[in-house]
Request: fold
Amino acid sequence: MGRDVLLIEDEPNIIEAIRFILSRDGWHVQTHSDGKSAYEKVLDMRPDVVILDVMLPGRSGFEILRDIRGGGETAALPVLMLTAKGQTKDREMAESLGASRFMTKPFSNTDVLSTVRDLVGA
Amino acid sequence: MIPFDILVAVCVAYVVVLFLVAFFAERRASAGKVGWLRSPLVYTLSLSVYCTAWTFYGAVGYAARSGLEFLTIYLGPTLVLVGWWWMLRKLVRIGKTQRITSIADLISSRYGKSNTLGVIVTLLAVVGTTPYIALQLQSVTLSFSVFAQADSEAWQPTDLNATALWVAAGLALFTVLFGTRNLDANERHHGVVTAIAVEAVVKLVALLAVGIFVIWGVAGGLGDMADRIAASPIAETQFNGGRWVGLTFLAGAAIFTLPRMFQVLVVENADERHLATASWAFPLYLCLMSLFVVPIAVIGLATQPPGSNPDLFVLTVPLSFDRDGLATLAFLGGFSSATSMVIVAAIALSTMVSNHIVMPLWLSWQNTGATVSGDVRKVVLTARRISIAGVLVLGYLYFRLTGGSAALASIGLISFTGVAQVLPALIGGIFWRGATKRGAVAGLLVGFFLWAYTLFLPSFGAGSVMSASLLADGPWGIGWLRPQGLFGVAGMDPLIHAMFWSMSLNSFAFFAVSLSGFPSPMERLQGAQFVNVFEHSSAAQSWTHGMAEAEDLLMMSQRILGPDKAQALFQRAAAAQGKVGFLPDTTPAFLERLERELAGSVGAATSHAMVGQIVGRSSVSVEDLMAVADETAQMMEYSNQLEAKSEELSRTARQLREANEKLTELSIQKDAFLSQISHELRTPMTSIRAFSEILMDGGDLSEADMTKYSSIIHEEAIRLTRLLDDLLDLSVLENGQVTLNAQPGNLTDLIDRAVAATGSLDGSGNLRITRSRATEDVALVTDTDRLCQVFINLIANAQKYCDADAPQLWIKVRQLGPNVAVDFIDNGNGIPKRSQDIIFEKFSRLSDRNAAGGAGLGLAICREIMSKLGGGITYLPGQGGAAFQVSLPLAKAKAA
Amino acid sequence: MDAARLLPILGLFLFMMPLLRQTGGPAATAGIVVYIFAVWFVLIILAGLLSRRLHRANGALVEDGQEDDG
Reply:
């Protein structure tokens, strides 16, 4: 039962906040801010959970999710999607691409934590 | 010598056979079995009415008197038939499409359905044909007398007149019986035509038989015959070139201008293809008919006692050799020739008389209109029957008055010349659109008068109609008006003289008057129909308004066509219009068709007048045409309007589409904008909320962490506020609600303020700003605060985004024409070309480097401000770094 | 069709030929008779051939003669 979380997010303050919340609960959090190399990071790190922002420089979160679901080894990887846009079509898009969960910013810290816990079945 | 009684019996039997033939042909036709009745052969044989008793008996007499000249009478028609492609084809086509009933109808119809012309041509035909009919009566009685002379007990010379009367009465009966069965003169008279075809065969066989008898029975075969010809007086006859040409021409004209020939050639024609057959078959018939004429004449002159009538050689030669059977056959041949001519001529003339004289009179007498009373059918039929009787009575009277003295041939040629007067109007009418009714009337009257004056009246002999002194010295002693020496032309053959003057002056009058005037609208329409019959085979567009009551028209049509046919016609027309019942809309097309149908019964002019009485107009006037033109113009205008409208509509539609596209685009932009706003608002709020919760949770937070997290919250709150400020600012600018606070200022001061505001002045930032103060001294009147805001934004951008190791910014002021331009150029990488277009759009952050907290609204705000100030802001490519140019109208600045 | 138009002109020319002979004699008259009938028969044969050819070549040159009169 791993507790490795990869946070793909470009907003430094939000990275700081999520890292703090998860680390306090005993998760190992690594972060990545660039959309283009995000998938390589996933393959490289093999996290137990991915928290993925939609608006990323270089490549959108949706495209990264498509890669994750398309790659054989990462197809079943739990992915929590975060977005600040919060429009219905973004949620639908995320669900159709196979996001495990979808959350709108701003979020409640406990929700993020419980969702991550949920995703790894802890 | 056969007894006279038996001859009469044979003759009567022959007539009975003819009646039966006509009767069965009629029966077959009415049973729908037209078959061979309509064959080209029957058509060709029916044309043989051209060969009358004049041909049968007269040709031999003609040859005996004038040598080969008789041949011209057959050569003319041969040429016309052989050249059918030129004219007969066109005549037949016109006759069909216009449902022409007679030559008078053709002329009348062509010149605007003028009844005046119809009457003139009818009178001309009657006057020209009556002597001809008399001629036939004479030949029959003469041929009877030949047999009677030998059987003098049974025959008294005074009985000649009675014979003629009986023959005339019998012919009238036959003609009435078979010639007026159908009202529609345009329908074929199958009975008559078939009987005539039989007669044609009889006369050909008879003449050939006599000819063969003469060559191989009397003479000793062909060689002997040739010798005899050379030895006969015929060979001595002078060959008159003028007459040869003139008579060929006359005979050629006669083949279609003679009323009876027009009847069989055009009216009775069932199929245009028959004409192609007749083009060679009829010349063959004529050729055979004339083949033995010269031998018979030669033998006749040689064997018959001097002073005997050469016109009767065909009979007297076989009789003198006691060939009774052959003589009887020859008699029947002559009888056939005479009767067929009289029958067809009577039908043709009666059609003309009833359609062009009786019916118009009756119609004007019945001035209440054709709908109200009377059975028109019966009137027309009665008129036609009376006309037939009348024509025969006239012929008989003429025969009685002239006493049968004149030579047969000369009567025939006089008749030919008379009817040939129609030629200019006819030819002109079908080939020349400019021919007018007035021209036709003038030509016909001139020709008619000259013919009567120079040929017809003198033919009665000096002292009968014209006095001997008039003939010799001219009227009132004016020599150049002598009937047979007009304009001082003397020594000319009287016939050629008459033909020359009548035809040339006729043609001259026709062309001159036609050229001097303009055809009426109706004439133009009909002229086009006739001249261009092959281009458009439809009847004239003559009815412009359908105001007639269909019921009235039906009532009238029933009277003319008969109830069954009329109802069927109306029903078909209604069905064609998609209506049920018997009453179609009286559209111009329907009226035109109806008129054409009626024309087949009563002629074009009468039919037009009858429909006109009901419809309320009798001809196409200039006003009508103007109305049509007006309608057309209105239609065109209307359609132009429609076109304009539809253009307008499509323009509107295009505008709508554009507006819709714009709206859709706006909606997409709005969605994108909202999405951006949402993102820009939620991002700082996310941080604020997350750290707030962390702080609220308390726990084992270090003091440093708490301070750090609080400052993040603070920083994000400020960012949020700034964003909201920018948004409000932009919204105000975009909606034009901004009030500009114009005040004088100096560019140097403004740039100073901006540099100071960005904190670059005191060197706290690492951006080095290079200025050229000398050029900056420009006085301005503008909203200095807003302009300063733009400068601040541009300097701040340079601070944020210039990625050079030693960031530097040059601020250059220049005057560009009426504008002052302030360039902000840094030494960074600049903005990629593809992005240069979008940097002024809202939220157009090129990267995520928003550490400075920019929401991507800065340049959008700058652009709005500059456009409000009357200037602009553009990106300057190719300056080695990011370069923005702010321009401001100088004129405005100086005006202050 | 042009042949159909030319035929009568040819015929006219040939039929008028005898006019050119100024000398009239007994023998000439018989000759003229033979000549004219010969021309006549030639014309008839030519017209017959032409009408057949026109018929075949251009069946549509003539419409069916009868209008339907019900």
Q: What stands out?
A: The first strand of chain A starts at residue 4 and ends at 8. The domain at 4-113 of chain A is CATH 3.40.50.2300 (Rossmann fold).
